[in-house]
Structures are given as C-alpha cells and as structure tokens.
C-alpha cells in the first residue's frame, strides 16, 4: 500500500501524525474514522487508537477532535475538489479512491421520489484501508483444483477476517497461473470496488493478467454480463446474499464457468441455516468450502472442507503474518 | 518662444494621453469581464458534460485561450495537483489576488470571484451549476453597468484630458 494515497486525503491536522507512522504500523492500519465533534479513531492491528499531539495513543485526555472543517477538507481531497463528479458514488454511500481504499460516508440524506439523491451534510467518514497481501492464498491454492480443474468454491468468514483479501489473491493466482496450473480467464464482478480497487476503471490492485473486471456493477447483472461478453473460465464475486445472486450463480454454473465467492458466516452449519444461502448449499454443487477463523488476529486459521462438508485441510498462519 | 511652444505641446500631449488612457480603462475591463465569462461557461461545460475533476477542468479551460485569466486557472490547477493539503478556496483566493492584479478587473469583481470559490467542488452537479450560473449573472450585470458607464464617461475623460492640458497652458502663459 502506498502511504501517499492515504496521506493525500487526510485533513491538514492529521497529516503530521500520519507522516511519522512506521512501516509496520502502516501495514496494520485498517480504518480511519472521522466523525464531527468526536475524537478521530484509528483502527490498527485490531486495536483502537486516538491521535493526541501527533502521537497515536490508546488512551488519553488530549485526543484530537474532528471538526466540521476537517470533514469538508477530506471530502475535497477525496473527490479531487470535484464532488460533483462522484454523484453516483455518494448516492451509494462510498467512494473508491486511488489505491483501492474505500471511503464510506454518512450524514444528512436527501431523498427525491423515494430515491436517495445525495448525502448533503456529510458528518462521518470511514476510510477503509485496502491491503493487498500477495501470497496469502498460497497455502490453500492446492485445495482449489482437482485434475487441473478449478472447483466451485465458497469462502465463509466473519467480518474483518480478510476474506476479500484472500479472494483477491486467489483471483490473482488463478489468473497468472499457479505452480503447474496454466493461467485462466477470470471474470470479476466488483460491486463495491474492493477487489480490484479500480480507479477510473483500472484495477489498482494486482488481480492478474487474465482478469476482466466490472467495477461498481451489481453482482447479479454483472455475472450474466461477463458470461455473455468475456467467456470467463472462473467468475469471482464478493459477499453474495440475495436470492437473485443465487439464481445468477446457477446461470454461471450452467454456462460451464466455475464460481468462487465469499459469504458472511461463522461456519458451514451457520451458512446452511440461512434461508437463501441454504438453498445453494442443499443443491450440493459447491465443491470446496474455506472457512476463515479469527484466532487472535485476522484470518490466521483457514479450514478447508469438501463437498460432503468433510474437513480436508487446515492451515494455521503464524501470527507474524497479521494484516 | 520655441521652448514655450515645446513645453505647452508636451503638457497638452501628456494630459490628452492621460484622458484617453482613463477612458480606455472601461473598455479593457469590459473585455476582461467577457473573457472571464467565456472561461466560466467553458468550466461549466467541463463540469457538466465531461465531469472532469476540478484541477483537470481548470487546466482544460486554460488551454483554450491566451489571457491572464487562463494563467489564473492554470496556476490554480498546478497548485491543486501538488496535493499540499490546501482547500480549493484557499488556493483560489491566493491566486485571485495575485494574478488578477495584472488584469483590469476591479475589487468588486475579485470579491465576486472569491465568493464563488467558496462553493465550488463541494457540491453535486446541480448546485455546482447554480453557483456558476449565479456568478455569470453577476458578470452580466457588471458588464451592462460597465458599458453604460463607458458610454457616459468615455467622452468626458477624453475631453477632460485635452481641456485640462489647455487650462494648464493658459494659466502658465
């Protein structure tokens, strides 16, 4: 991750602190939250920190409080002084910036004809730092193939366990080729611009050389579009959930493409019990389940199950690999 | 005698020149206001149809004509691209005062321009348009007044220059 891409969008009072950040801490940076009239909160290595006199502190009286001006400045920098060019993004509540970081917004919403028109007075900003961790899927890549064929895979993970990061790396490896596997065409529907972190349609993260990406496209339509237009061998999507998603996955499978997707959940059984996802599980078409677990860090335990929900592999990452 | 004639003609020349120079001032301000108006219309197009980000929009507009106002836009774009953490309004103000001193725009015009900068970039397209529209209306108003004043005072300044010269000569002789 480039330090500049974040520094560029911070309001002046927070830049000094950010410049003194050490490399190791930048790696562990997860979120920067700005709320008007409240202390700025930094999430790093899964801990909350505050800024006090240009230092990060985990507790203190002199915490820096975000002003209205800070928010306004940040919005100017995020949108490159041109919020008008991001009307659609603001309507959805987030903007993806250079470097693939996602900036979530909330505040006073203006509604017209029952449709959200824009967020007028932005009062809370959440900067979600995107981290590429190349190689984080090395240990599980072997489980995704059978006779040189990619398998339909579902990644199950609680929030903040690095499922998007893992999916991104899987996409990269499938696309570039992995060990003796030739690279294949991967189609990505990146509804929330997290996988590719596209800036003006160009992926900022490395998602491989044979990857076609639809940035900011609704998942359901996107999957159908890719099948029709780019003939992908594999389609990858993040966070499926609606029944339309399931129908689209059916369509993808019938078209002969493989699917790799992620879903929120704690374990296989929990996902099975969800009404919509349960339907997908009952069909027995998914061939691999990867469950991420959060044991004192992010996604440092990966369990792999096969079609019959039998545990076929377990990977424990050393905690030094925290992100 | 020869010296007297030379002196008087010098006085007459310089005072007439002053008169003409002042009368031209109106016309020059009108020209500058018109250039500014054109620049803003171009900027509106950039914002509306190309959705270019502000620095890019300002730069694109500045390339379309050669005038101090184009330099003004260009210098704002250049400074914004440095990402020094200044807001658009700060940068705009700074350059408005610097660059526009070189033009014939007056204090009121500069004030309108600075007021305008307080609301750009931080709004949706609709508000952006209203903002540019408001400034364009102000400019139209100013141009109208300036043309009226030009018609009114143009002749006055010229004749005042010539007559003042003659008056001085008469008094001195």
From TrEMBL, chain A:
Keywords from UniProt, A to Z, are:
ATP-binding, Nucleotide-binding
What Pfam families does the annotation carry?
Answer: Spore_III_AA
Q: Which GO terms describe its molecular function?
A: ATP binding
Q: Which residues form the AAA+ ATPase domain?
A: 149-296
- NCBIfam families xref list: spore_III_AA
> PANTHER family under this entry?
KINASE-RELATED, P-LOOP CONTAINING NUCLEOSIDE TRIPHOSPHATE HYDROLASES SUPERFAMILY PROTEIN
Query: What's the protein name?
Result: Stage III sporulation protein AA
Species name: Vallitalea pronyensis
From TrEMBL, chain B:
According to the UniProt entry, the coiled-coil residues are 129-156
Which keywords fit this entry according to its UniProt record? Coiled coil, Membrane, Transmembrane, Transmembrane helix
Q: Which residues cross the membrane?
A: 6-23, 156-172
Q: What InterPro entries is this protein classified in?
A: Spore_III_AB (IPR014198)
Name this protein carries in UniProt? Stage III sporulation protein AB
State the species of origin: Vallitalea pronyensis
Q: According to the entry, what is the taxonomic lineage of the organism?
A: Bacteria, Bacillati, Bacillota, Clostridia, Lachnospirales
């Amino acid at each position: 991750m480039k330090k500049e891409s974040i520094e560029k969008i911070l309001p002046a009072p927070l830049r000094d602190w950010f410049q003194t950040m050490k490399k190791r801490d930048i790696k562990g940076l997860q979120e920067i939250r700005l709320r008007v009239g409240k202390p700025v909160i930094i999430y790093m290595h899964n801990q909350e920190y505050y800024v006090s006199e240009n230092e990060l502190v985990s507790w203190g009286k002199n915490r820096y409080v975000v002003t209205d001006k800070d928010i306004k400045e940040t919005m100017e920098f995020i949108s490159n002084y041109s919020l008008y060019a991001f009307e659609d993004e603001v309507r959805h509540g987030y903007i993806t910036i250079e470097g693939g970081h996602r900036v979530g917004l909330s505040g006073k919403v203006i509604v017209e004809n029952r449709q959200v028109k824009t967020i007028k007075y932005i009062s809370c900003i959440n900067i979600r730092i995107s981290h590429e961790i190349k190689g984080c899927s090395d240990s599980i890549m072997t489980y995704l193939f059978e006779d040189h064929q990619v398998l339909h895979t579902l990644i199950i993970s609680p929030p903040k366990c690095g499922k998007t990061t893992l999916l991104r790396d899987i996409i990269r490896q499938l696309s570039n080729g992995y060990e003796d596997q030739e690279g294949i065409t991967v189609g990505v529907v990146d509804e929330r611009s997290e996988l590719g972190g596209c800036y003006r349609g160009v992926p900022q993260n490395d998602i491989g050389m044979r990857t076609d990406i639809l940035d900011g496209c609704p998942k359901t339509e996107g999957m159908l579009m890719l099948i029709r237009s780019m003939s992908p061998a594999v389609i990858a999507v993040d966070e499926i959930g609606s029944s339309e998603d399931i129908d689209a996955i059916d369509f993808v499978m019938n078209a002969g493409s493989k699917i790799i997707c992620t879903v929120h959940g704690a374990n296989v059984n929990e996902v099975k019990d969800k009404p919509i996802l349960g339907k997908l599980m009952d069909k027995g078409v998914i061939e691999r389940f990867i469950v991420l677990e959060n044991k004192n860090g992010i996604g440092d335990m990966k369990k792999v199950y096969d079609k019959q929900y039998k545990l076929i592999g377990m990977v424990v990452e050393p905690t030094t690999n925290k992100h | 005698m020869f010296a007297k004639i030379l002196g008087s003609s010098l006085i007459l020349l310089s005072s007439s020149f002053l008169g003409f120079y002042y009368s031209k001032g109106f016309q020059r301000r009108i020209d500058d206001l018109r250039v500014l108006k054109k620049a803003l219309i171009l900027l509106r197009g950039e914002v509306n149809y190309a959705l270019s980000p502000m620095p890019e929009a300002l730069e694109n507009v500045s390339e379309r004509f050669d005038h101090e106002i184009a330099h003004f836009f260009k210098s704002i774009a250049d400074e914004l691209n440095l990402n020094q953490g200044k807001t658009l309004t700060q940068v705009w103000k700074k350059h408005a005062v610097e660059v526009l001193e070189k033009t014939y725009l007056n204090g009121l015009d500069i004030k309108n321009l600075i007021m305008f900068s307080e609301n750009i970039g931080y709004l949706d397209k609709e508000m952006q348009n209203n903002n540019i529209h408001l400034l364009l209306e102000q400019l139209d108003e100013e141009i109208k007044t300036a043309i009226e004043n030009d018609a009114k005072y143009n002749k006055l300044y010229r004749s005042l220059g010539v007559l003042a010269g003659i008056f001085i000569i008469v008094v001195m002789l």
